Amino acid sequence: MKNVFITGATSGFGEAIAYRLAQHNVNMIITGRTESKLKEVAANIEKATKTKVLPLVFDVQDYAQCEEAINSIPAEFKPIDVLINNAGLAVELNPVHQGALEDWERMINTNIKGLLYVTRLISPQMIEQKHGHIINLGSTASHEVYYGGNVYCATKHAVKALTAGMRTDFLPYGIRVSQISPGAAETNFSVIRFHGDKAKADKVYEGYDPLVAEDIADAAEYILTRPPHMCINEIIITPTAQFNGVIVREKK
Prior knowledge:
Shape: globular
Radius of gyration: 18 Å
Low-confidence stretches: none
Largest sheet: 7 strands, parallel
Helix content: 40-55%
Strand order of the largest sheet: 3-2-1-4-5-6-7
Number of strands: 7
Strand content: 15-25%
Mean pLDDT: 93
């Protein structure tokens, strides 16, 4: 690892992964939509480590913004060796016949199109150098569908398919492609899903110990520190108490 690019690094998995990988003395490019929070994360990482951090403020849903931001990366942060497509979200738990179009579009534009936009702009650097590693953040929802999760699960199924497609496309160039698929994790994920209703979000994790963001950072670090001949295709991680999207063993 030399130059690392992480989308959605203002909170949750992305922030935790950025802090963890900064321990490896890399150059870090972190992205997000909230400038104040992104700059705060960047400053804290630089204060705590030897890592140089470049914050890029843009929305992965907008290709023009992605292109402008990525084209602005200075030479000292290129070529990108590691791309972590972390930006993603779920919105609401409505059945299809009650779904809100704006929620569907936000999930599709972020989880699928945003991942594609950033990969399309960065992967040519990896192909040119015949080296690189891409990690896509999937979900246990990449493997199942639960009530109300229709569009979100569809987007994460798409991430799984795209990860396999990238692995095939980039195989001739020695580029590794991996996926991390977390189960229930207590980050700001459910707060976003329920449009900021923290009380409703907190109920999702009542009665058991969910994953935390640092668990996913552990997985990312493990994947990226394997020897060059080895590619971790996917890691699926759940809390011990979770079987799937609907079956969770509560504490007694």
